[in-house]
């Protein structure tokens, strides 16, 4: 890796330590060496929680009520844009453009905890807010700690990945206190100037689960109708020959920054990002280097929530076209693992991050207590849960990097035994027994008494192809929990793949099989022997658990 990707690490850590010592963060740009420094604005350099009042006329509120939920973003989703007045710190801003923001999980109507995007120059050229032309006030409904966006953006920037900044504000809308908001800097030329000398290139919006070869919206750029750069990148990513693909990607993609971004997405369990879900990303064409630069977005479901966990593998199934194209080459895989090791050592320092969480938590607690006393009673629990996930993720990363998953070896008939199983609790208080004698077999047992989700898990690296995971299992009085949306019972499966039909009740030893496909060579697969139930016991015959290559 070049020096470009390492310098921000030093800046981030020095800034973080300055925070912890009570000093100001150094007001220097975290751009590439040799570029002109641009001072950080005070709202991001300090811990102050802003108080922002937004007044929208009655006709504007009526228009915003017609905003479709949809899956688009901002004005590209045909959401109404209206004028408002903004007051903050004695300043008054008029003719500010405002619209509702958010996608599938975060969108809320104007009368129900809305997330908002404010554009200060759309109707008043040259008007800025603390130097910002545009920012969003996120409702953080998918992050009850209100801290993930800020923590994760700082970590991405420390890894050398361009990313907008985050702060906090309390929102008053037409006299109603809506409570704490996460203030995030908007994408646009004002943001790009911190990282690139030339801001004339196209800045693409990844939209909702769109790939680079889809019709992406352009946020800024001198030639928004010319998408030849995206076509060139897609063609390079789809080159079948690995050596030629690597050479083609190097010519059109900022490879150092891209590998840093997908590594940080995996480190922080950003399951809803580009690498693992083709979602929440921006893409800029840097005309000076003639390379495409990926940037992360939507960092509110992090460190093991929803479709991931703190123990997620460091080599997950990559969904993004460019991520797959890079990881499927021997050189790309080597550089990815090398960069991940560097980032875990130099950036993802758990104790330092936890201190930063405490520092930010101390700043937002008074604002929450003042604006939402009821929620103030539970915020500490949410922050503790965030810290727990960060700690667990750090442990898992170091364990996986020190003891990488084995490449399975198959016998002449295509069989391989699965060993080294580890117990994992998702919810509840199950009990585990690793070696239990049951009906003449050596089994792994999970017992549930009052509702739990638990499993035995192991990992292995596989080549591309079709496989069957099978083994014998036995059940006793397994009762599914009707409240479990994912379906209760016992099964064999692999992580991040289709959920099989699960067994319930009482059964004798029965052979169970789960078929799946691996699309790319060198993929790390996590095998799961699972019990999700209100009550019951499940035994998994350890000697029979095996993988068959078809």
Overall outline? globular
CA gyration radius, whole angstroms: 25 Å
Count of discrete alpha- or pi-helical segments spanning 4 or more residues? 14
- Could you give a short account of the major beta sheet? 7 strands, mixed, barrel
- Poorly predicted regions are 1-15, 17-40, 72-76
Question: What distance separates the N and C termini?
Answer: 39 Å
Strand residues, percent:
25-35%
Number of strands: 22
Tell me, rounded to a whole number, the average pLDDT. Answer: 88
Strand order, sheet with most strands:
1-2-3-4-5-7-6
Judged by helices, strands and strand pairing, the structural class is alpha+beta
Which bin fits the share of residues in helices? Answer: 25-40%
Briefly, what is this?
This protein is of the alpha+beta class and 550 residues long. It has 14 helices and 22 strands. Helices cover 28% and strands 29% of the residues.
Could you give the topology of this structure?
Blueprint: H1 7-20, H2 42-45, E1 50-55, H3 58-64, E2 82-88, E3 91-100, E4 116-119, E5 134-138, H4 148-158, E6 166-173, E7 176-185, H5 189-192, E8 203-205, E9 217-220, H6 228-237, H7 242-252, H8 255-267, H9 274-277, E10 281-286, E11 291-296, H10 321-327, H11 330-346, H12 350-371, H13 373-376, H14 379-402, E12 415-417, E13 422-427, E14 431-438, E15 441-448, E16 452-462, E17 465-479, E18 489-494, E19 505-518, E20 523-533, E21 535-541, E22 546-549
Parallel strand pairs: 1-6
Antiparallel strand pairs: 1-2, 2-3, 3-4, 4-5, 5-7, 6-7, 8-9, 8-10, 10-11, 12-22, 13-16, 14-15, 15-21, 16-20, 17-19, 17-21, 17-22, 18-20
Helix pairs in contact: 1-4, 1-12, 6-7, 8-11, 12-14
């Amino acid at each position: 890796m070049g020096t470009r990707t390492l310098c921000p690490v030093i800046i981030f850590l020095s800034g973080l330590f300055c925070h912890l010592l009570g000093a100001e963060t150094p007001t220097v740009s975290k751009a590439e060496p040799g570029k002109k420094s641009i001072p950080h604005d005070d709202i991001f350099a300090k811990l102050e929680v802003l108080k922002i009042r937004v007044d929208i006329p009655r006709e504007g509120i009526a228009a915003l009520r017609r905003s479709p939920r949809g899956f688009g973003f901002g004005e590209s989703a045909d959401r109404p844009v209206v004028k408002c007045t903004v007051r903050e710190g004695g300043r008054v801003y008029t003719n500010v453009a405002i619209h509702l923001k958010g996608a599938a999980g975060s969108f809320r109507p104007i009368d129900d905890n809305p997330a908002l995007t404010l554009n200060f120059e759309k109707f008043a050229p040259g008007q800025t807010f603390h130097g910002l032309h545009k920012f969003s006030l996120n409702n953080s409904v998918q992050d009850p700690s209100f801290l993930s966006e800020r923590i994760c953006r700082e970590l991405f920037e420390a890894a050398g990945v361009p990313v907008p900044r985050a702060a906090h504000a309390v929102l008053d809308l037409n006299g109603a206190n809506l409570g704490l908001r996460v203030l995030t800097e908007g994408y646009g030329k004002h943001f790009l100037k911190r990282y690139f000398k030339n801001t004339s290139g196209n800045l693409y919006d990844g939209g909702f689960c769109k790939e680079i070869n889809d019709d992406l919206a352009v946020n800024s750029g001198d030639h928004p109708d010319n998408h030849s750069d995206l076509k060139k990148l897609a063609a390079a990513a789809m080159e079948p020959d690995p050596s030629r693909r690597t050479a083609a990607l190097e010519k059109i993609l900022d490879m150092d920054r891209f590998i840093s971004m997908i590594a940080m997405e995996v480190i922080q369990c950003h399951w809803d990002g580009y690498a693992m879900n083709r979602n929440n990303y921006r893409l800029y064409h840097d005309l000076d280097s003639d390379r495409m630069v990926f940037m992360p977005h939507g960092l509110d479901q992090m460190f093991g929530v929803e479709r991931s966990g703190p123990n997620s593998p460091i080599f997950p199934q990559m969904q993004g076209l460019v991520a797959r194209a890079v990881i499927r080459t021997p050189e790309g895989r080597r550089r990815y693992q090398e960069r991940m090791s560097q980032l875990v050592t130099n950036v993802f320092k758990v104790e330092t991050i936890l201190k930063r969480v405490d520092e930010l938590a101390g700043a937002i607690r008074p604002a929450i207590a003042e604006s939402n006393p009821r929620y103030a009673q539970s915020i500490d629990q949410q922050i503790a849960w965030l810290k727990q996930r960060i700690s667990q993720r750090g442990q898992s990363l170091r364990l996986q990097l020190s003891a990488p998953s084995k490449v399975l070896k198959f016998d002449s008939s295509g069989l391989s035994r699965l060993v080294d199983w580890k117990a994992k609790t998702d919810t509840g208080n199950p009990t585990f027994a690793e070696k239990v004698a049951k009906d003449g077999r050596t089994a792994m047992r999970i017992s549930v008494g009052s509702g739990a989700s638990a499993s035995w898990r192991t990992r292995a690296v596989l080549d591309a192809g079709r496989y069957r995971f099978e083994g014998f299992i036995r059940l006793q009085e397994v009762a599914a929990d009707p409240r479990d949306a994912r379906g209760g019972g016992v099964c064999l499966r692999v992580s991040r793949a289709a959920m099989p039909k699960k067994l319930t009740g009482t059964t004798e030893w029965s052979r169970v099989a789960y078929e799946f496909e691996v699309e790319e060579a060198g993929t790390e697969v996590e095998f799961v022997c699972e019990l999700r139930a209100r009550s019951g016991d499940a035994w998994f015959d350890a000697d029979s658990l095996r993988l068959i290559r078809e």
